[in-house]
UniProtKB/TrEMBL annotation:
Name under which the protein is recorded: DNA metabolism protein
Domain of life: Bacteria
InterPro entries to which the protein is assigned, alphabetical: DNA_repair_put, DUF4130
Residue stretches making up the DUF4130 domain: 87-253
Species classification: Bacteria, Pseudomonadati, Bacteroidota, Flavobacteriia, Flavobacteriales
């Protein structure tokens, strides 16, 4: 029995594509792609670490985009960002089918990989829209609008354009405390950053780091939010449906301490 090959990568999208390149370049049969951080409990396997190489990743992606539509490419990337365990191998199977199929643009939802990708992409898309709607910034003393989030999926790469367009005249940081990285806009470009001091136990910025009038603005917003609500029309079930409770900890209007 030939041992199965497990390819370990750094968790990046380019790292995943580098694994796909190696599989085709070295003709590795039935390979499994796995993050370096994942533990291996399988017996009779060969493990190889794959170095992320941008030019190889670019070649794979170029080949994939030549055979797929823009929507299919976006869904593919969303599914990768879902971080669901083993999703890399679903994406690998989907890629392999894509490379071997003829120029038939019809989507076969009878294919289990295509169906799963479609379903997961919708889940990630919903989380993206929720982050765009529920992010609340706090202005710090260094004049940077800062927000902390903890999304179910790794959606920061998907919300960059929304916030860059909407807050083009402000410096801002949106930090994912679950994955310990953020996106920072300096009025020119958006870059990925890692900042010490953010904790999953603390979702709001400390008062001593806030700008002088920030707390007053937050109290004013909370007062406005409470006053525009009509108590006689309050529908808690509908409210939680449109604004799930797990997002309340990020919302200024839900901060009872103000």
């Amino acid at each position: 029995m030939n041992p199965q090959t497990i390819l370990l990568y750094d968790g990046s999208f380019e790292g995943f594509l580098s694994c796909v390149f190696m599989i085709y370049d070295q003709k590795i049969p039935d390979a499994i792609i796995r993050k370096e951080s994942d533990t291996n409990t399988q017996l009779f396997t060969i493990t190889e670490e794959v170095i992320t190489e941008k030019h190889k990743a670019s070649r794979v992606w170029k080949g994939f985009t030549s055979k797929t539509t823009r929507n299919e490419q976006q869904d593919f990337f969303k599914v990768f960002l879902s971080e669901i365990k083993g999703v890399e191998n679903t994406l690998l199977s989907y890629m392999q089918n894509t490379f071997t199929k003829k120029d038939n643009r019809n989507i076969d939802f009878g294919n289990k990989d295509i169906l799963k990708i479609s379903q997961v992409a919708r889940m990630v898309g919903r989380e993206k829209h929720r982050m765009e709607a529920f992010v609340r910034f706090q202005l710090t003393k260094d004049n940077i609008y800062t927000a902390t989030v903890e999304p179910d999926f790794n959606v920061l790469p998907l919300i960059i354009h929304h916030f860059k367009d909407r807050y083009a005249d402000q410096q801002w940081v949106i930090y994912d405390i679950k994955r310990n990285y953020g996106i920072y806009y300096d009025l020119h470009i958006v870059e990925t950053v890692t900042i010490e001091g953010f904790s999953r136990k603390k979702t709001r910025i400390s008062d001593e780091l806030l700008a002088q009038n920030e707390t007053e603005f937050q109290k004013l917003w909370g007062t406005y939010y409470n006053n525009v609500n009509i108590k006689s029309r309050k529908n808690n079930k509908l409210h939680r449906q449109h604004l799930p409770k797990r997002y309340w900890k990020y919302l200024t209007e839900k901060n009872s301490s103000l």
